[in-house]
Amino acid sequence: MLSPERIFWPNEIGLEILRRCDGKTSVRAIIAALALEFDAEEEEISEDVIAFLQEWADNLLLRFS
User: Fold this and answer.
1) CATH code assigned at 54
2) Number of domains in the chain
3) What pLDDT digit, counting tens, does each position of 23-65 carry?
4) Residue 13: which of 44, 24, 58 has the closest Cα?
5) Gyration radius of the chain over CA positions
6) 3-class state of residue 7 by DSSP
7) Which has more pLDDT, 62 or 5?
8) C or N terminus of the chain, fewer CB within 10 Å?
9) Is the entire prediction scored with pTM above 0.90?
């Protein structure tokens, strides 16, 4: 994705997060789905998911509703 000053290229996990950003699924549900898919504890990945979403929101690439 393009931002005025930068290009954002998500990694594999970032793509999985973005695929689940449909305007209906909560962040908590995204974390739970990824934990199940990648056989990880929700606590292990929640900080990374939230940080990823916050970075993209800070750069106006997605918006929380």
Assistant:
1) 1.10.10.1150
2) 1
3) 999 999 999 999 999 999 999 999 999 999 999 999 888 888 7
4) 44
5) 12
6) strand
7) 62
8) C
9) no
